[in-house]
């Protein structure tokens, strides 16, 4: 065998530094490009102090930076969420939304919008409540022993999501005024409402989640062998499953309430990275955080620069790139 | 001789279906212990109970003189390793990665393998004859190769007991003998206690030092192959016509099926 001892650690460091570099570059591009066309150089100056242009300083720090940071956090969370759910359910097609988190938070958000609440904290809060409520419902539905049976969880999630879909359509069809536009925008995913304070809080919330999930990355490898095999290799299934499920759901809920529904990131990124890097979760967890972040920053950049006027919801771009890419990957991996 | 597994009045039920009924027996260290019996007789359930996957409803189960429930998951994984029935894997690990997973009960939190773990994995792969496949993906292997990779993974756990659930079920003749020979070798060279669930009574006759014949969750017979594999007992347990004589290949019974009389022609 031509492997040397801490080879996993070395791979993690190598992959992470590469993807971190990629993320930083995309973030820099994201901050540099906007409706006021300033060069990278001027933006760099105002980022690292010494920018003479106070208007540009404001744009960079108050508008672009929080938005790009939010995009990176959202992409990281959704990719990592997809990775965890794929391991947990041993189903390569799982993604965060499959457990009904999207449906629940969408209902919460729509109710908030219909009640005329402000975007933050009002609608975000009702969206968060909605997703936590569906999660609790799901946990109660599949409680006890059966939480370990992946199909129970998966099927319950699909059903909860379908039910939520019906309620969403009901609420949408009952709404006719300008609030309809807000609802549609939220349902398609939208990163435009970012404020440095909120994004900062979100980042502080997510960081411990990332660390916990990384700590359980080797357990996720063993989970892929099946629950019974993982047990015989020393994994405390009940504890690990519960921690992964709760931490990931909390992480995704806190993100979705800021950005609306963004599909396909959670499905495509883990697959893409797994194809390139192999299935070891100790490498994939940091890779999904950094790579997923970079993907979302690019998608958001396209979403706000592509249209001549205004911008389109980022969810449109993630799905437009994500869906064909996924089909391509699926065909390739079948071979 | 130390007792590797000691079972006293053990029962197990799935909801209201009692699968194991009041079993009592023990397995000594270093035995090649084979569990046989018809479909649904509780073989796999018994194996999963010994592996600590299923919790017995009643009765006592001790592994090396220590109650099973006193073991932590990690401690148990260092004592008992399970080789599952051929399982499909959607996630393409390499052979080395998979074999190294057997080290996990010995590793710290994140599971970073040290030089020593790589050496153990290397040895296990050489022992099971899959070292030349080290960099192949697990989903590109044949059934026989896959089986030996999973055995190498079990060896890496450095257990005292290895459990195998129908290890020959999907293998051709040569690979069946290869896997059983390998287990015999591991028993002799490393001193494993080997516990195997088998469908093939002839393989059980050839390799088992002790046989347990289960029928509907009850011990139909327990002992040396020539005492367990008698025509009368087997015909009654499997409910079909059989011939039993001494195998021309060695001093063990040979069981031959008789076509056309399956399940009938016995009552009279």
Automatic annotation (TrEMBL), chain B:
Keywords tagged on the record: ATP-binding, Nucleotide-binding, Translocase, Transport
NADP is among the record's keywords: no
Spans traversing the lipid bilayer: none
Gene Ontology terms for molecular function: ATP binding; ATP hydrolysis activity
Residues covered by the ABC transporter domain: 5-241
PROSITE patterns listed in its UniProt record: ABC_TRANSPORTER_1, ABC_TRANSPORTER_2
InterPro entries the record matches: AAA+_ATPase, ABC_transporter-like_ATP-bd, ABC_transporter-like_CS, P-loop_NTPase
SUPFAM superfamilies: P-loop containing nucleoside triphosphate hydrolases
Pfam families cross-referenced by the UniProt entry: ABC_tran (PF00005)
General function of this protein: Part of the ABC transporter complex HmuTUV involved in hemin import. Responsible for energy coupling to the transport system.
Name used for this protein in its record: Heme ABC transporter ATP-binding protein
Natural source organism: Candidatus Desulfaltia bathyphila
